[in-house]
Amino acid sequence: MELDLEFFTNNVALVFLIIVSGALLLFPKILGANQKVISAKDSVILMNQENIIIIDVRSSEEFAKGKIANAINIPLDKLAENIGKLKKHQKKQLLFYCQKGIRSSQAVKLATKLGLEQCSSVDGGVDAWLKESLPMVLKA
């Protein structure tokens, strides 16, 4: 027992680093435990395998510039008032996206809170989508 205590006192910085590293690894999982975030490439696989509903939570102006095919636009600030439209499809997977993935993560949290269970967010949003050279329907 004396040897174990001596190790900890001699290596306080190392022990502290191990504890902090472990906490940082677990922290995002704790925050997003009920939230599913999937990559742009995995989103395409999901679209090809299942009949899903794609929801763009960007503003109407952003949506008008370009969108993922078959996406519907429900801006994040109007999501709560339009939740009835989505509840009609609650047995389907709902895929939310925005420009960077921040608003879509908030949309997943809100939709889950309002009773929708099968919700995912595109990690990195449109930026990640375009980085992977995935197709977008662009407006002129």
From TrEMBL:
GO molecular function: thiosulfate-cyanide sulfurtransferase activity
SMART domains: RHOD
Keywords: Membrane, Transmembrane, Transmembrane helix
Matches recorded under Gene3D superfamilies: Rhodanese-like domain
Residue ranges of domain Rhodanese in the record: 48-138
UniProt-listed Pfam families: Rhodanese
Keyword Zinc: no
Protein name: Rhodanese-like protein
Ranges in coiled-coil conformation: none
